[in-house]
Design a protein that fits this description.
The protein is α/β, with parallel strands linked by helices and 222 residues long. It is 54% helix and 11% strand. It is built from 9 helices and 5 strands, in the order βαβαβαβαβααααα.
Length: 222
């Protein structure tokens, strides 16, 4: 079943061009022209990802993301900001509120498509791992032996991580951005990026999605 993406922008032309591109790419698309309308659609359709403008009537993108993140069911919902407001203060505010990526207008649809695919892949990996953990917990509760063929295999991969690298990896797999990880660990985003680069190198991963997949497969996270 196609993944659902919510596109939010008060400009009809922008909504239409993004929606057409995503539908051609195989997604189901729903759209809204302001944050208030989008919030209602989130509750009704439970989209897998949101692409939203910031400056909109009735409810802007900042307030929309703030309200979405306040709901436990949508804490990990991927959000991409699209905005002509590209100053550092605007970007920092967006990341602090919980957006996953910030693309300046004008933007290339192909770049947006790549960002969307990467975020959805990461989101699905995290959800799959969470379901697996719930299933394993249920098996243990029901007295199923941990030696069964369906139980988690012990990883043969030995990766030596520092305590700080492990902390960064744990937060990465939960969907935190560099800014959010930095705030949580009281480190700068630049320092976090260095730790991420080290993790990519140690796990021979090309990007964060591969890193998360590797960490889950080899049980580098609790």
């Amino acid at each position: 079943m196609p993944l659902t993406i919510l596109v939010v922008d008060d400009d009809f032309g922008t909504r239409l061009s993004i929606s057409d591109y995503l539908e051609i790419s195989g997604y189901t698309v729903i759209s809204a022209e302001n944050g208030q309308e989008a919030l209602e659609l989130v509750d009704k359709h439970k989209p897998h990802l949101i692409v939203t403008d910031i400056a909109m009537p009735e409810m802007d993108g900042y307030d929309l993301v703030k309200r979405i993140r306040s709901r436990p069911a949508f804490r990990l919902l991927p959000v991409i900001f699209l905005s002509a407001h590209t100053g550092i203060s605007e970007r920092i505010r967006g990341y602090q509120l919980g957006c996953d990526n910030y693309l300046p207008k004008p933007f290339e649809l192909d770049e947006l498509g790549v960002v969307i695919r990467a975020l959805l892949e990461r989101s699905q990996l995290i959800e799959s791992e969470l379901r697996s953990r719930v299933s394993e917990s249920a098996m243990v509760a029901n007295g199923v032996s941990s030696n069964s063929s369906e139980s988690k295999a012990v990883s043969s991969v030995q990766i030596n991580l520092t305590e700080r690298e492990q902390q960064v990896l744990d937060l990465l797999t939960e969907g935190f951005s560099n800014v959010q990880i930095g705030e949580y660990l009281h480190l700068s985003p630049r320092t976090i990026e260095k730790y991420v680069s080290s993790l990519l190198r140690k796990t021979d991963s090309n990007n964060r999605a591969e890193l998360v997949r590797f960490a889950m497969k080899n049980h580098l996270i609790d």
